[in-house]
Amino acid sequence: MTAILPETMRRGACPSLSAPMQTGDGLLCRAALTAPASPRALVSLCAAALRHGNGILDISARGNLQARGLTPESACLFEHEARTFGLPLRDGIAIDTGPLAGLDAAEEADPRPLAEAIRQGVAERGLAPRLAPKTAVVVDGGGRLPLSALLADIRLRAVKNAGWLLFTGGPERPDAAHGLLTANDAVETALILLSQMAEKGRRFRGRDFGADAVRALAGARLAPARPAPVPAGDPKPFGLFALNDGKTAFGIAPAFGQVRAETLIGFLHAAEAAGIEAIRPAPGHALLLIGAPAACAAMEKAAESAGFLTRADDPRAAIAVCPGQPACTSALFDTHALAAEAARLPRLLDGSFTLHISGCAKGCAHPEPALIALSGQPDGIAFAFDGKAGAPPTASLAIDQAAETLRTLSALVELRREAGETAARCLRRLGPAGIAPALTKGTS
Length: 444
Ligand code: SF4
Known about the structure:
The chain is α+β, with helices and mostly antiparallel strands. 30% of the residues lie in helices and 22% in strands. A six-stranded mixed sheet has the order 1-2-3-5-4-13. A five-stranded mixed sheet has the order 6-7-8-9-10, with helices on one face. The radius of gyration is 22 Å and the shape is globular. It starts with a strand and ends with a helix. The site of iron/sulfur cluster has 12 residues, from loops. One of its GO terms (molecular function) is metal ion binding.
């Protein structure tokens, strides 16, 4: 273990197995996997989290497993044990591929060889210590679970029979590609850009590259590309996915991204008994179970009984929520309590938009704008319409009135919704002025 960083000390700090982060309920250790793991190896990891932490596990928005409530001593033991379970652990900067990489018949190209070559290049050039801790590379093969929504300093996205589109900074935007690269040039260009970032120092991020600078660094490797549509795959990985080897993946998610280690251990034992061969945490706080189609189908009831989300139309799937109080020292209210109230409003949370509930203005759970973002502020909760957590609020709510405000908003949508209209369309049509009566009820 190398460093312990208070969560509030430095924006942009990123925890890992060897560098846990201080949170409101102790240290947080992140285990990032580069490939699916066996249920048994994950049972061992959960048992270690229970032994050494408070037994609460997160699956993060990027699909990493996080153990909470550790101490400086127990975090060392947790790291040491975690490295003995045969898990495909990732060290160094995030170089993400899709959770079905190499298994998805709908994939445009297999991203794993590129990701591995970039990983090796970063190690050989000793870049990781000189890059911003949250530096992320996304190598997206497309298919049914694309990574378009994940933030990336450098993004390579496959285009069938054409090569790899290069982007820098942010989520994927169709008009923001710098150009097309061959697979070899994609690796070399990513390493050139990462080297340049390392030279500029740990505050420099992919979003800081101008288009001219990228063109100058990539040189003749970069071929012009027309704006490519963002992949249409559903970013919510629920249900059954047929794989290219005859197996199936079954996507589920713990409610609000958290699960007790005991619950997950029981579920993993049931999965192994049912014939599930491998499991991969996935972006969107999800878990993908991989096995024969019958084994995956058999796990649906077990998942529901254990409290997991199994369907995209579950209202809980429409809520992006951070750990909040008491887990995070920056949190100004109990985000999960408000999320549980919101989950009782299926007419409002019909899957047409994401409700973002954030303990403070930082907005960890959903860095992008949301149609409704509720974030803690010193005197209550800021309500932002079509904005980010921390954006200038449309209204300020008292903490104990926020749930009532959402109920009033749900009733308003129910009343004003036109035929065939989703909640999102209705809210956008009404706009801030149209929903103001619902907000004034909870205004502090
Ligand atoms: S957004 Fe949530 S998890 Fe992130 S710092 Fe604020 S309260 Fe903590």
